[in-house]
Amino acid sequence: MGIRWTYAFVDRPAAVFERAHSFWAAVTESGLSAFRGDRDEFVTLLPGDGADACVKVQGVGAGAGGAHLDFAVEDVRGFVDGASERGAGVVAEHDGWAVLRTPAGVAFCAVPWAGEAVRPPVVRGSRPDQVCPDVPPSAFDAEVAFFEALLDGWESRPGSRPEFHVLRPPAGLPVRILIQRLGEERAASAHVDLACADVAATRARHEGLGAAFVARGAHWTVMRDPAGGVYCLTARDPGTGALSAS
């Protein structure tokens, strides 16, 4: 499908957009691009050292937000057509880019590739490197099948637990996908995960920047950022994304 780069998009309500982008810029030690959009609702987090961005933040006009993926591709029209043939729904087509939804209802975007090639560095032992679509049990198998068909050339395998499925991109792409089967039938959503060399240390740093602890799982910690959105700190190698040895 000609995917040349991947972005994790943090979506938060417009009323708390500034809290969101300030927190995520601090977490990743990034600068901010110029604001874009009709309402200045988009901003890119700019890493240093000549690296290319892979995290953006959006202020949404309705709903609680969450996260979504942007696929930077060589041929937006071809990608949209191919995704549609595989079961995606087209939400909106803009000048040169498009918003789509997976069969389970998780949003993603197709955007033009702008030459991005250099992955941002690990910052203080952590890196945002994963978008996790959270889908109801009835939609899980179809969602896995959709992404497997869409992401030709990505590694697809069961995760560390029965409710997870991992889609890992070819070397060099900065954001991978973890599909999670929810424990109940409810609307699909998505969140961002960070790979952390030391979850406890990263949690303490994030709390110092205004985040709050929500819950602890088997090898992850759920947090809430100052804009009210949840994300996870996961015990994975921030260089490779692999699960850390217990």
Number of strands: 16
Continuous helix count: 4
Radius of gyration, CA atoms, in whole angstroms: 17 Å
Shape: globular
Class derived from helix and strand content: alpha+beta
Major sheet details: 8 strands, mixed
Order of helices and strands: EHEEEEHEEEEHEEEEHEEE
Question: What is the terminal separation in angstroms?
Answer: 36 Å
Strand order of the largest sheet: 2-3-4-1-5-8-7-6
Mean pLDDT: 96
Estimate percent helicity: 10-25%
Strand content: 35-45%
Low-confidence stretches: none
Commentary on this structure:
A hairpin with a 5-residue loop joins strand 15 (220-224) and strand 16 (230-234). The protein is globular, with a radius of gyration of 17 Å. The model has no long low-confidence stretch (mean pLDDT 96). The longest helix has 14 residues, at 137-150. It has helices spanning 17-28, 76-85, 137-150, 199-208; strands at residues 3-13, 31-32, 42-46, 55-60, 66-73, 89-93, 98-101, 107-112, 126-135, 155-158, 164-168, 176-181, 189-196, 212-216, 220-224, 230-234. With 246 residues, the protein is α+β, with helices and mostly antiparallel strands. Strands 2-3-4-1-5-8-7-6 form an eight-stranded mixed β-sheet, with helices on one face.
Question: Which key phrases capture this entry?
Answer:
eight-stranded mixed β-sheet; globular; alpha+beta; 246 residues; single chain
